[in-house]
Design goal:
Layout (H helix, E strand, L loop, with lengths): L1 H16 L1 H30 L10 E4 L9 E2 L12 H10 L3 E8 L7 E5 L7 E3 L1 E4 L3 H5 L5 E2 L14 E4 L1 H8 L9 E4 L2 E8 L16 E4 L3 H5 L9 E2 L1 E7 L5 H19 L6 H9 L4 E3 L7 H37 L1 H9 L4 H38 L14 H27 L3 H6 L3 H41 L9 E6 L11 H13 L4 E7 L10 E6 L6 E9 L3 H5 L3 E4 L13 E5 H8 L8 E3 L6 E7 L14 E5 L20 E6 L6 H12 L5 E6 H6 L3 H35 L1 H9 L4 H33 L12 H27 L3 H5 L3
Parallel strand pairs: 6-11, 8-10, 18-23, 20-22
Antiparallel strand pairs: 1-13, 1-14, 2-12, 3-13, 4-5, 4-9, 7-10, 8-11, 9-10, 15-24, 15-25, 16-24, 17-18, 17-21, 19-22, 20-23, 21-22
């Protein structure tokens, strides 16, 4: 320990003597380690993090598709299911004693907000995220309340008093941890609800989401609070199921058992499997058990590929940083050759010298790691803003966690060893007699070869990152410049939830007229479009459709309910027939407008006007018009058949209260004559004048809503440019260092050349040629590597299968310019060498 302490003291003195070197190395390390630690923060939070519950490894999800959500019916074609009816859940709960607990959770809660107002004269309603869960939900997760109590089975029975549990974050942020909140009355969707407790600190729900639940309510409260009639509909699948298995339970037999129970429940409760095709589908019905300890979430699936890519990119930047620091240490070691030779001549062994030099490199890496944590904090905040713009209450903290701190320390120690071993070993090989006589060519020659190899590596990796930045920038540009057949100019999207404001289905037709009238009264308003969802909001309501005269033909198509002004409000053009008119009321014959993809899918090149289509019956709707194909879900959805029906109509036999087939109003699209900065305040006042409980769920410009669909692509593209630029800068610094060191080593040679008549331009060309050769070798390695790498990320690119020649040329030009600048400075210095002074050096 005494020897180690002395090594540290000596290392600190050496670093203080060379402040420029120390600062350069620390900044390089801080950027390299900080970038990796920032990426690791997201990776740890999204991909590696477990739910903050008791023994998360014992949690199992019934289902394997994290993207399924909301409310649906029927089975997938392969018979697999990740959503279940209440009856199926109850049947599994009764038939599977292998579970200690089996809980059910509402699917797609983020798209179904609730309106909450605390009881009191001066309180205002607010739209928040509410999640409906079974009574044993918190018990299944093994949680204890922070205050009050959590939901129990008695809360989740018909006729039970309405209760709710509030999240710890909401309790802190909205109510300043007021203890009187527990036991007080809140008005949820205009109904009185008693808040009975607060969730434990750090709990964000059973899945990682952009907006975690603020309130947890019993499933049996849904019919009263939401008017949801599908809670006990055996044909409606709307529940996630997660359970805690007993110790020693084998999942394979349990999966087979639950699949059999699932088939029995379908046969017992649903009449949709009487046909031959239905029996065949029923025989394929099954479930898949998956680990649930990391959360039932789509976020992992959505961000997994991007985060893995960014991890590799950050690793490459760190590798460039290590190569750069190794070069600096080699230069520094050569400058210290006399000191090291003297120590060797006085009896210091090679191992002792290597230990001292490694101590310096590890000390540098440790200090750089601490600085890297500061960079990681700022970098993580930047990443969160890029990855999740506008997200509220996201349970990802930019502050370094214990895992991130451990990662940064481990990474810094690893880099210290990586960039310290080779320079320390080469420096320690200096022969004392040669050095003291002035002959350093042996050790310097070996160091020079390693330096050049490191520069070649930096140049190659920098080129790969530059090409990657160009490819992802090109992909993003193609996404954003695609003609979506939409007009977002002076358009605003207002999301709302009339059911949460207490509106019944028979009141929605009059509400539609009232919304149109009140918003048209706003000065500067041009169009007021109503719909259940809008383009590019990451929402879709799909059904299987049939057409009259086409037996045994069924195709899936998205279904929207809209008013007469909707097509104009989003810029969709009617190509054939007519659009939806004001005369298409609830008493008029049901009509529909389809898009080009739907018409082609069903009717080919024949005229679809007058043909009849439907979901359960081919006579439900008469097609009266065809509109152009507009982008709704995402640009990668190449064939997207769509059906538009009047807001005030619903198909025969459909449940009028069904939020998807009924008259559900989910959004208002406002088109104005000019940009209106005050439009959001006007919208809120207009809705409040109609009903104080009719709150804005989300307000966005149409441009922002479209832009939000490219968040992930924008994140990767911008980070690729940042990392590519950083790698280029580091490579340029490394090349400059090696070239400058080469000039110092060749001072006598250059002096002799100039004494024999060489001019300055020839000397500059000589030095630049050496720098360019190293860069060209790096390019020779980087070009094929970049071409291969693009193949591995092709799935994340839009309409790009190979590297464009223009991108290769741009990357070559940028790297060439950087190489020229990095080499020119020491080259001009070499050209200014005085031959007389150079010949006196030795």
């Amino acid at each position: 320990m005494t020897g180690l302490f002395r090594d540290l003291q000596f290392a600190l003195r050496q670093l203080r003597k060379t402040p420029a070197f120390t600062v350069t190395v620390l900044l390089t390390l801080a950027l390299g380690i900080g970038a990796n630690a920032a990426i690791f923060t997201l990776v740890n939070s999204i991909l590696l993090r477990n739910l903050p519950v008791v023994n998360p490894s014992a949690l199992v999800r019934v289902g394997d598709d994290p993207h399924q959500c909301c409310v649906g019916s029927g089975l997938n074609k392969d018979g697999n299911s990740s959503l279940f009816s209440t009856d199926a859940y109850e049947e599994m709960k009764r038939s599977a004693p292998e579970f200690e607990e089996l809980a059910a959770i509402q699917a797609g809660f983020t798209g179904r907000p609730i309106t909450v107002r605390k009881d009191g004269p001066d309180t205002l309603p607010k739209s928040v995220a509410g999640e409906y869960v079974s009574g044993n939900y918190f018990r299944t997760l093994g949680l204890r309340p922070y205050a009050g109590r959590l939901l129990t089975d008695s809360d989740n029975t018909k006729g039970a008093p309405l209760t709710a549990v509030i999240s710890y974050t909401t309790w802190q942020n909205e109510f300043v941890a007021d203890p009187t909140v527990v036991g007080s009355t809140f008005w949820v969707n205009t109904k009185p609800v008693t808040v009975v407790g607060v969730t434990p600190k750090g709990f964000y729900g059973d899945r990682l989401a952009f907006t975690p639940p603020d309130y947890y309510l019993p499933i049996e409260a849904m019919p009263e609070l939401m008017g949801a009639k599908y809670v006990h509909d055996p044909d409606t699948n709307w529940l996630y199921i997660v359970g805690r298995v007993k110790p020693g339970t084998a999942l394979a037999p349990l999966q087979e058992k639950l699949s059999a129970v699932f088939r029995q429940s379908l046969l017992k409760t649903s009449g949709n499997f009487a046909s031959a095709s239905g029996k065949e589908l029923l025989a394929r019905a099954h479930v898949v058990l998956t680990p649930a300890g990391s959360g039932i979430q789509a976020m992992q699936a959505s961000y997994r590929d991007q985060l893995r890519l960014l991890t590799w990119i950050a690793g490459l930047v760190l590798l460039v940083s290590c190569a750069n620091i190794a070069n600096l240490l080699l230069v520094r070691g050569t400058a210290r050759r006399v000191e090291i030779s003297l120590r060797s001549a006085m009896g210091a062994g090679r191992g002792r010298i290597v230990r001292q030099l490694l101590t310096e490199s590890l000390l540098l890496s440790g200090m750089g790691g601490l600085l890297g944590l500061a960079v990681a904090y700022g970098g993580t905040r930047l990443l969160l803003r890029l990855a999740f713009p506008g997200a509220s209450g996201l349970p990802i903290d930019a502050k370094p966690s214990l895992e991130v701190v451990a990662f940064a320390i481990g990474l810094s120690m690893l880099t210290g060893i990586l960039f310290g071993v080779a320079p320390a070993w080469l420096t320690s090989r200096a022969q004392p007699a040669d050095t003291l006589r002035g002959g350093v060519r042996t050790s310097a020659g070996a160091a020079s070869k390693l330096q050049k190899a490191l520069v070649v590596l930096q140049a190659g990796l920098s080129f790969v990152l530059l090409v990657g930045a160009g490819v992802f920038a090109q992909s993003l540009d193609r996404l954003e410049s695609t003609d979506m057949k939409l007009d977002s100019h002076n358009r605003y999207i207002v999301h709302l939830n009339p059911q949460a404001a207490g509106y019944k289905d028979d009141q929605l037709e009059s509400l539609s007229r009232e919304l149109e009238q009140n918003f048209h009264a706003v000065p500067g308003m041009v169009k007021v479009g109503l719909t259940n969802y809008t383009p590019m909001e990451d929402n879709n309501n799909g059904w299987g459709w049939i057409a009259q005269g086409l037996p045994n033909v069924i195709h899936s198509a998205s279904f929207l309910r809209v008013n007469a002004e909707y097509f104009d409000s989003v810029g969709t053009k009617v190509l054939l027939g007519r659009g939806i008119g004001t005369g298409d009321t609830s008493t008029a014959p049901p009509i529909a407008v389809v898009n080009q993809d739907f018409a082609k899918k069903f009717f080919g090149d024949t005229n679809p006007i007058g043909r009849r289509i439907g979901i359960d019956s081919p006579g439900d709707y008469e097609i009266v018009g065809v509109v152009e194909n507009t982008i709704y879900g995402n640009l990668r959805w190449e064939s997207h058949p769509m059906v538009f029906a009047p807001m005030t109509q619903h198909p025969a036999g459909a449940n009028p209260s069904d939020p998807y087939l009924g008259r559900y109003i989910g959004a208002v699209v406002l088109q104005t004559e000019r940009p209106m900065t005050e439009i959001e305040a006007v919208v809120r006042r207009t809705l409040a004048s109609m009903n104080p409980n009719l709150t804005v769920v989300q307000f966005q410009t149409f441009d922002r809503q479209i832009s939000d669909q490219f968040i992930q692509e924008r994140l990767v593209s911008r980070l690729m440019m940042i990392f590519g630029g950083l790698a280029l800068l580091l490579a340029a610094v490394g090349l400059y260092g090696v070239t400058a060191y080469t000039v110092v080593r060749r001072t006598q040679e250059i002096g002799i050349r100039m004494a024999l008549g060489a001019n300055r331009s020839g000397v500059v060309a000589l030095i630049l040629r050496g720098a360019m050769v190293q860069a060209l070798i790096g390019l020779a390695i980087g070009v094929p590597v970049a071409m291969v790498c693009v193949r591995f990320v092709r799935s994340q690119l839009y309409q790009i299968t190979t590297v464009d020649v223009a991108i290769l040329a741009a990357a070559l030009l940028i790297l060439g310019l950087a190489t020229g600048v990095a080499g020119l400075i020491p080259a001009r210095r070499a050209a200014s060498i005085n031959p007389v002074e150079a010949l006196r050096i030795e």
